[in-house]
């Protein structure tokens, strides 16, 4: 059971729809897995298009899916007519992102009327072994009365 | 004139070669522009493949090119047989990344034997107007005797 | 000339008064020096009461005066009936804080209706030589209609 | 049981001795409570000497005891002839630090040969109710062959 109670019962559909409109995530090949109140999981399969120069997952890509997982974790707890923007994020790359799959999990630490704080964690799965490769924190701001849609 | 003196006179060629091997950067369409001692500039043209759900540049992509610019800025100051890894980065998204082009600049603040600190800044250019959209800091670690090449 | 225009012409007096009510700052011996629109400087003289175990200025104290300098830099730009709270700060300790005096400067990078972003820098002065010993970033939130006073 | 195995069996005595030499911590009134492998707890009683202008615990003081708790958590896992320095820390102040006591806990997330990553958490206790008021992350560097003593 989640310790958070979502305001919008249809939060999961709303979030999956928003994620599908993120051109960058589909271009990288990221997939949204679990969507629960206050927690979202994103997966990214290994391929040369997501690597840095040593052949591991790129640290910036690791940060990008972590930012997205945290952003949508915060998004699960807001009303249908609001949107959520990242204010800042900080991520420590604590082990090489080496594996077949990268799994980013965003978790709400403190939801707020204006600001929400999330923790973000990324693990690399290699041959069935899961290793945490990044940990971070993220601050988000809620914009009310601004549906999560492109302008125009 | 730069206030830093590179150890490897061929640093620019080495860095452009390393950047070319970053599958993620070419997949996103990022291009390396200026490479100077302690400062590197990366450009990213707008297209749907780099956006978030409102149609702006994705915050995670903004962070990814900033991380890369800072990483290579640090890279300009090390010996040819060493490599540089990001320890952590923190980025504030201070304005919508709205424009035709995103320009990320990484600058070394403090080079060190083991750790190097960079500041990272990203600007969006729209109709000729440049707006700073992100600011951050980054810590990197130098690994000596480990050339910047994939293993094997 | 500052690039910022303060809303409250009496901002400097208001800020010096607020700083004087910070028990922690006077207990540490910190003094407010320059107060300009978007920029504030705080000084701390060396004494055993502000050290870590090696006899340098304590990193947490360095962070505390940096947080305070940044907070009041943001404070210079708000109305008289508002207050400012730190959302988060991140600081890199880039050299030993070794000297007779520590000087922390907070500068507004991006003022905002809700959030303000500052950069913070701390220098140690030793025998007339100034060395940057810390650099960081800070996010602050403005609370309107809440004067900067203790409740009750 | 801790998931970490200390290298130095006398780590707790060594850490309590080091903490006792931190002039800033005793001046603020901070006390070292639990010292376990990879985890350290520091307590600070409320008094006017540790406050900000609204009468709550000062955010910079909150950060200072969190930095100290994390630093000593990392310190528990190193050899007797080494020392540990903070590279950087980032802290989110997520609720007012309002109470009779502040409790900072530092926990090692990833110990390393050169760098160690900690998470830091601070809670305020008011009338028996404990509220998390800050969360952060910290990066530390180990210096070998440099005992934790003032030079000279």
Structural notes for this entry:
Four copies of one chain form a homotetramer. With 152 residues, chain A is of the alpha+beta class. Chain A has one domain (11-143): Hotdog Thioesterase (Thiol Ester Dehydrase, Chain A, Roll). Chain A has three helices and six strands; from the N terminus they run ααββαββββ. Chain A has a six-stranded antiparallel beta sheet with strand order 1-2-4-5-6-3. Chains in contact: A-B, A-C, A-D, B-C, B-D, C-D. The C-D interface holds C 18-19, 21-25, 27-28, 47-55, 58-61, 63-68, 71, 83, 85-93, 136, 148-151 and D 18-19, 21-25, 27-28, 47-55, 58-61, 63-68, 71, 83, 85-93, 136, 148-151. Strand 3 of chain C pairs antiparallel with strand 3 (83-93) of chain D.
List keywords for this structure.
homotetramer; 6 strands; globular; about 150 residues; Thiol Ester Dehydrase, Chain A
Q: In a nutshell, what does this entry contain?
A:
The structure is a homotetramer of 152-residue chains. Chain A has 152 residues and is of the alpha+beta class.
Poorly predicted runs of chain A: none
CATH superfamily heading of chain A: Hotdog Thioesterase
Number of continuous helical runs of chain A: 3
Determine Rg of chain A (CA atoms, Å): 15 Å
User: What is the count of β-strands of chain A?
Assistant: 6
Which whole number gives the mean pLDDT of chain A?
Answer: 95
- Spatial strand sequence of the major β-sheet of chain A: 1-2-4-5-6-3
The fraction of residues assigned to DSSP E strands of chain A is 35-45%
Apparent shape of chain A: globular
How many structural domains does the protein architecture of chain A include?
A: 1
Q: What is the element string of chain A, with H for helices and E for strands?
A: HHEEHEEEE
Biggest interface goes to: C-D, 44 and 44 residues
Helix content of chain A: 10-25%
What is the CATH topology of chain A?
A: Thiol Ester Dehydrase, Chain A
Quaternary state reads homotetramer
Structural class of chain A: alpha+beta
């Amino acid at each position: 059971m989640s310790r958070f109670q979502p305001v919008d019962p249809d939060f999961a559909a709303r979030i999956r729809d928003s994620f599908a409109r993120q051109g960058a995530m589909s271009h990288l090949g990221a997939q949204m897995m679990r969507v629960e109140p206050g927690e979202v999981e994103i997966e990214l399969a290994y391929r040369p298009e997501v690597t840095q120069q040593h052949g591991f997952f790129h640290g910036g890509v690791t940060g990008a899916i972590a930012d997205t997982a945290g952003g949508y974790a915060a998004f699960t707890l807001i009303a249908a007519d609001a949107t959520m923007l990242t204010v800042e994020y900080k991520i420590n790359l604590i082990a090489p992102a080496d594996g077949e799959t990268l799994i980013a999990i965003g978790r709400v630490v403190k939801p707020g009327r204006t600001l929400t704080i999330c923790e973000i964690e990324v693990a690399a799965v290699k041959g069935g072994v899961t290793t945490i490769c990044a940990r971070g924190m993220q601050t988000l701001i809620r914009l009310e009365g601004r549906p999560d849609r492109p302008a125009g």
